[in-house]
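Summary of Year 1 activities. Much of the first year was spent building the evaluation harness for sequence design. The harness presents a backbone, in tokenized form, and records the residue chosen at every position. We chose the following record to illustrate the format because it has been used consistently in internal testing since the harness was completed.
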């Protein structure tokens, strides 16, 4: 577990070590099957896999990267458009998000297991069944790592979490735990998931009211709570930016007074949360059909 956090070279050596990842997955599967998701060894295994999934998209061996990104390269070449904000840029982004990964192997080996749907379901199972904070945080963190970035792997993992494995109820429950680090990681995972335009309505329907409910009435006083607040605001920004319906959901959940209060704190110490709230307010105001509702 300590070695797996030793940096890029350490992660590379451990990913390449024959049988190591397979053994970790095998152990966790056994623990879940035996209804023992809370033992220390399971926690260690999940924390190792969490660390080995860090920056996985960037650090993938060339052979995986080539096969995985060939389709993506073809799409972006076919849809080149001049300027930073070309009219088709959103369509290109949506196409890239929908680019499928090469078909999953039924029996993945080694590094392939790290983004396979089997392990994604294991993480979601541990989030739901374990009461050990480090195990919950590492499972959420591994999914957060796998959904970071803009390639086909993060978006394929996001679709598996939201649509194929029905993972949102378990993640939603983690928003209400008392452990700040677990809550922060759950929000960061939702922020990654909410970047996928095809999943935004599902996420909004399932968790938007919960996100609003855990927003503080003003900027919190500690760093971790401040970071969590900023992440919530950016997640709500993603969910409402292109959807008047989702913006109305935020309004009906009584989120607007909270966002305004957070945005008005101009202290440097809390500027991250205040800036995020201001960005969200600016986006909400772009829905002109809601102006009268906002004013009320």
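For this record, the design step produced the sequence shown next.
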């Amino acid at each position: 577990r300590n070695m797996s956090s030793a940096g890029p070279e350490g992660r590379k050596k451990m990913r390449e070590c024959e049988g190591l990842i397979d053994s970790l997955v095998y152990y966790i599967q056994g623990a879940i099957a035996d209804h023992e998701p809370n033992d220390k060894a399971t926690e260690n295994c999940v924390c190792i896999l969490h660390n080995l999934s860090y920056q996985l998209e960037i650090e993938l061996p060339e052979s995986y990267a080539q096969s995985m990104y060939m389709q993506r390269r073809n799409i972006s070449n076919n849809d080149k458009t001049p300027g930073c904000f070309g009219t088709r840029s959103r369509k290109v982004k949506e196409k890239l998000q929908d680019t499928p990964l090469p078909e999953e192997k039924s029996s993945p080996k080694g590094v392939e297991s790290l983004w396979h749907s089997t392990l994604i379901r294991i993480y979601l199972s541990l989030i739901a069944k374990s009461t050990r904070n480090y195990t919950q945080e590492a499972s959420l963190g591994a999914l957060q790592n796998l959904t970071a970035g803009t390639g086909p792997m993060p978006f394929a993992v996001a679709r598996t979490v939201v649509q194929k494995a029905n993972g949102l109820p378990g993640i939603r429950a983690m928003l209400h735990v008392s452990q700040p680090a677990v809550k922060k990681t759950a929000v960061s995972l939702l922020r990654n998931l909410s970047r996928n335009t095809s999943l935004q309505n599902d996420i909004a329907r399932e968790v938007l009211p919960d996100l609003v409910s855990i927003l503080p009435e003003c900027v919190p006083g500690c760093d971790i709570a401040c970071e969590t607040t900023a992440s919530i605001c950016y997640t709500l920004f993603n969910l409402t930016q292109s959807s008047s319906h989702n913006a109305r959901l935020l309004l009906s959940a009584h989120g607007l007074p909270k966002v305004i209060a957070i945005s008005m704190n101009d202290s440097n110490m809390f500027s991250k949360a205040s800036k995020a709230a201001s960005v969200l307010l600016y986006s909400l105001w772009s829905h002109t059909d809601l102006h009268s509702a906002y004013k009320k």
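The radius of gyration is 20 Å. Quantitative recovery figures across the full test set are reported in Table 2.
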